[in-house]
Amino acid sequence: MEKKAAKEGLFRRLSRPVELTSGSPWRVILRYSMPITVSFILQQIYVLTDAIICGQVLTAAQVAGVNDTGPLTFIFLEFAFGCTGGFSVITAKAAGMGDTKGVRQSFAAQIYLSVIISLVLTVASIALLPWLLGVINVTPVNAEVYSAAYSYCVVIFAGILAQMGYNFICGILRAYGDSVTPLIFLIISTALNIGLDIFFLTTLRMGPAGAAIATILAQFISVIGCGAYMFSKYKELRLRKEDFRVSLSSIWEHLKQGIPLGLQFSILAIGIIVMQGAVVKFDLTASGEMVASTPAQNGFGAANKLISFLMAPFNGLASAILGFNAQNYGKRDYERIKRGTLQTVLIMLIVSAICIAIGLLLSINGTYQYIFMSTDKISAETIRYGNTFMYVDMAFYAILGFLIVVRSAVQGVFLAGYVLCAGVAELVSRILICAFLPQIVNGGAIDSSASTAAFAAVCFGDPTAWIAADLFLVPAFVYVYGRLKRMTPPEKPIGGR
């Protein structure tokens, strides 16, 4: 019994909500961000698991098809995730004010909005899928690549509700200061996803659709488990009948924060689609036929997955500063917001250096590609394409980290419009680079015979977009900093949790 009590005591201490409105900002942010970072890593493992098993089991054409789907799924999923991130700002503000009734009402509003948004996104994504595949030059002419991409995307889009549901429940808990509980259930669902991937792909031979089904089933279980545990652990979050009487003003308040961030994430995904379409051209012959080994798509896809994996600490810090700023905004402790944001930027610079070192080490001899693909699919060409993308992005990785952190910091003080404008700047710059620079460098149209320099020009679409967004966000951050400085000093918190 003593051992059991000790274990329970330890678990409660680990999963206890972090008090974001007191204590040293950098210590609080680090403690709060670590479980979130691990969660982002595990979410990447969802993607990586599909990639690894698909890379070992499927044909090169099927692997290329799955790799091509990333930007397409992002355009809808990231909108959903962005909305839930924006909604959580309202929740965190209420938590910072000690307003548990406001937290519950925010929860109820998010249920309504999440169901509606998920249904709209599911219908729209499946209806637009053939056209979107055409945008990235994946057409029925290349039947095997097209079939793999289509079947994988349809399943992922059909499961948007499960994916959005998990993220919005996590957003509620993180806004409340609990970043550990979502992690626990994500660990469980990740293990389940791996098991289902192996079963569906190696035993049942279900192909790309099987990998997508495994992902959705695992995430659906996360929703059920995390939601049930949340209600049992936090009795004050149990919704009451009156909480579901959500006013139109409350709905509008959530939409004002959620839609701009969702649009910003979707805009980012659209830019990546443009980049993906440019990459596909390097696997097409002058007559439009796709080369059998698809080295550009597979090399780029493997490198992109590693880069996304290494972004987990940035996303963890971004989620932490968003919740931190929103809670302290609710408490009206503006000086704490400033200190926390600046300290988070400094932490990010250190983290970016570590991530760059890891990425460069894994790029030696294309080591990372052996994680995502079987040996027969790896060649000097896939390594050349993948490493070119890696080196260009890694050279500007600190700029990306700064962008991610400052964007969330601005969102956390209820200035979502600036975030959306930064996203537009990203999109425009990425489109311009991908549309014109490769042809200029190559001295003509792009096909499988194009030079490495031309491919590098495509890759510069990323850092150019990041710089464009930072050129907008830095002045915005300075403005916000000055605005908060002129605001009234903090008031005593209202009530308690």
Account of the protein in words:
The chain is built from 18 helices and no strands. Helix content is 79%, strand content 0%. It has 497 residues and is an all-alpha fold. It has helices at 2-15, 25-57, 60-96, 100-135, 143-158, 160-175, 181-203, 208-233, 248-280, 295-310, 312-331, 334-363, 369-372, 380-395, 397-411, 416-442, 452-459, 461-485. α2 (25-57) runs antiparallel to α8 (208-233) and α15 (397-411) packs parallel to α18. Residues 1-8 and 490-497 have low confidence and may be disordered. The longest helix has 37 residues, at 60-96. The protein has one domain.
Proportion of β residues?
under 5%
Structural class: mainly alpha
User: What is the mean pLDDT?
Assistant: 82
Counted by DSSP, the helix tally is 18
Radius of gyration: 22 Å
Q: How many domains would you count in the coordinates? A: 1
Low-confidence stretches: 1-8, 490-497
The tally of strands reads 0
Helix content: over 70%
Largest sheet: none
Q: First CA to last CA: what distance?
A: 30 Å
Helix-strand pattern: HHHHHHHHHHHHHHHHHH
Shape: globular
Write the layout of secondary structure elements.
Layout (H helix, E strand, L loop, with lengths): L1 H14 L9 H33 L2 H37 L3 H36 L7 H16 L1 H16 L5 H23 L4 H26 L14 H33 L14 H16 L1 H20 L2 H30 L5 H4 L7 H16 L1 H15 L4 H27 L9 H8 L1 H25 L12
